């Protein structure tokens, strides 16, 4: 299986990347998958040029294909002005709006205060619902106070949220047909038009 991880953090190191790595690690402990991390910071100019030219360059095309061909997706954004970042939204704007249909997605975000955690529900979840993805029930938000606590070696309370969301995504991955298999089955199920037309003709 292939797991794509999209992170829109702008700084280096980035709390969004740190959260993305922890989520991916938690998922792959339960479902073996090849992980591909896509740092949108490195693609910012390519994404902007795509809006101007109407075409992705080779590097952006490779990132888009990694996301659309993956069996599952983890999407993490910093929260700016109560919503996802412009860079995060722009990347998903250049992806065909049917390319993520049926794909299991775990959404997550980081921010300075827990007050912005509802952005996951009023911004990210509707975005992926519009793209017809299957978003796991548990979304993960990490505020500044979540890092460096005493609940485990890294966080205070964040660990159980990560574990629950990762379990939900892993469960979908394990029970979902591989993308290539689903495509083959869909092609096999196509009935030629002539055959359908013959079935409608009256007998005798």
UniProtKB/TrEMBL annotation:
Which segments constitute the NADPH-dependent FMN reductase-like domain?
Answer: 1-147
Asked whether the UniProt record includes Cytoplasm among its keywords, one would answer: no
Q: Which major enzyme category is it? A: oxidoreductase
Q: Which GO terms describe its molecular function?
A: FMN reductase (NADPH) activity
- SUPFAM superfamilies listed in its UniProt record: Flavoproteins (SSF52218)
Q: Which domain of life is it from?
A: Bacteria
State the InterPro entries in the record.
Answer: CE1759_FMN_reduct, Flavoprotein-like_sf, FMN_Rdtase-like_dom, NAD(P)H-dep_FMN_reductase
Which species does the entry assign this protein to?
Nonomuraea jabiensis
Q: Does the keyword Ion transport apply?
A: no
Mind listing the UniProt keywords for this protein, alphabetically?
Answer: Flavoprotein, FMN, Oxidoreductase
| Classification via PANTHER family | FMN REDUCTASE (NADPH) (PTHR43408:SF2)
E.C. number(s) listed in UniProt: 1.5.1.38
Q: What is this protein called?
A: FMN reductase
């Amino acid at each position: 299986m292939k797991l794509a991880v999209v992170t829109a953090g702008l700084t280096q190191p980035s709390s969004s990347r740190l959260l993305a790595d922890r989520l991916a690690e938690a998922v792959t402990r339960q479902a073996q998958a090849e992980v591909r991390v896509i740092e949108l910071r490195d693609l910012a100019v390519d994404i902007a040029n795509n809006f101007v030219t109407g075409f992705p360059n080779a590097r952006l095309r490779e990132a888009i294909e990694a996301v659309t061909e993956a069996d599952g997706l983890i999407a993490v954004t910093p929260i700016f002005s109560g919503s996802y970042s412009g860079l995060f939204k722009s990347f998903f704007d250049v992806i065909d709006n049917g390319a993520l249909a049926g794909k299991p997605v775990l959404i997550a975000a980081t921010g300075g205060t827990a007050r912005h955690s509802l952005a996951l529900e009023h911004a990210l979840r509707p975005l992926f619902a519009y793209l017809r993805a299957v978003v796991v029930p548990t979304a993960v938000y990490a505020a500044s106070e979540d890092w460096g606590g005493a609940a485990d070696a890294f966080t205070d309370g964040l660990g159980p949220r990560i574990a629950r969301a990762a379990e939900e995504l892993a469960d979908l991955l394990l029970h979902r047909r591989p993308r290539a298999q689903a495509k083959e089955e869909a092609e096999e199920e196509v009935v030629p038009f002539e055959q359908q037309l013959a079935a409608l003709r009256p007998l005798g």
